Amino acid sequence: MQRNSGLVGRILYVEDSQLVATVLTRLMERHGLQVIHTAEAEQALQLLQDTCSGGPRATESFDIVVTDFYLKGHLTGGDLLHAIRARFHYSQQEMPVLVLTGAEADEKQVDVFHAGANDFVAKPIVEEVLMARIRSLLLIKQQFAALKRQSEATHRLAITDSLTGVYNRRYLLDHGEQFLAGRSNNPVAAVLLDIDHFKKINDNLGHITGDRVLQALGDLLRERSAENTMVVRFGGEEFALLVPRCSINDGYQCADSLRAEIEALRPAGVSITVSIGLASNQLNPGMTLTQLLNHADKALYAAKAQGRNTVCA
Q1: Choosing from 15, 60, 227, 237, which is the catalytic residue?
Q2: What is this structure's pTM?
Q3: Are 84 and 48 in contact (CB under 8 A)?
Q4: What CATH number does residue 222 fall under?
Q5: Does residue 237 carry a catalytic annotation?
Q6: Which domain holds residue 221?
Q7: b/e map 138-173, b = 16+ CB within 10 Å
Q8: Are residues 211 and 110 in the same domain?
Q9: Which one of 136, 157, 178 terminates a domain?
């Protein structure tokens, strides 16, 4: 028993016999598991719906499902298994399922696996066998979660500028057109922002100070940008923003407010200003990303020509 003690996991347990459910719930809880019991497959599906990614109770998600194969309700344990695999699209690694069944015939055991179960335990339940199976499935779930976290971290690194924490140019080029095509985003304003005389900061104060300036500016842009705005380090000291649901007039006001905030920022004790070019697809919704950025780039050059520390649209 000792090697199964102190397990950590949240179990969705489906069993229509109250007596059996009480005994096995106490057994699993004694080993450190958190058990949520329901007598019906329908209620189990609702709990899975509520706790799946994006559901209202996503923080209460389950690690594994333990279910009787033969339930008395409208839906059987087999129906529950089918829904977990086909409706919720949970793989056997993402949501392991352990079936409890009294069927000992080989064909019935095959049915259990065909339905999508990871493993089964035959009744009457032997505590050590049950806990060994649960422990094995929890390890599968933990390994899946670790690999998922690693994959997400790798993806974040691939699309994020490591210095400033905003998206990188590659992300803009890969996803910008889709952003413009989203009907709920239109009209979209493109903002190109360039730190004035940044080379002098690097030359006179050093690249470490220059990096701190860029980091502070990246933080400010993330914090101050409207919801769903795509914030990108376009290159060097230049940043790009795609702002959804933003007219040219609203964009100008927001850009000028941002310009003033940056002037007051003094990152790493350095006074900085920015020149900003603004463009919108408000009058031409079919404009491509390249066209929109070219318009913003021309506006940026106009801002620099006017003496910098200003916004041109």
Answers
A1: 237
A2: 0.67
A3: yes
A4: 3.30.70.270
A5: yes
A6: 167-312
A7: bebbeebeeeeeeeeeeeeeeebbeebebbbeebbe
A8: no
A9: 157
